[in-house]
Amino acid sequence: AQSVTQLDSQVPVFEEAPVELRCNYSSSVSVYLFWYVQYPNQGLQLLLKYLSGSTLVESINGFEAEFNKSQTSFHLRKPSVHISDTAEYFCAVIKNTGGFKTIFGAGTRLFVKA
Amino acid sequence: EAGVAQSPRYKIIEKRQSVAFWCNPISGHATLYWYQQILGQGPKLLIQFQNNGVVDDSQLPKDRFSAERLKGVDSTLKIQPAKLEDSAVYLCASSRWVSGKLGEQFFGPGTRLTVL
Question: Cβ separation of B44 and A32 shorter than 8 Å?
Answer without folding.
Answer: no
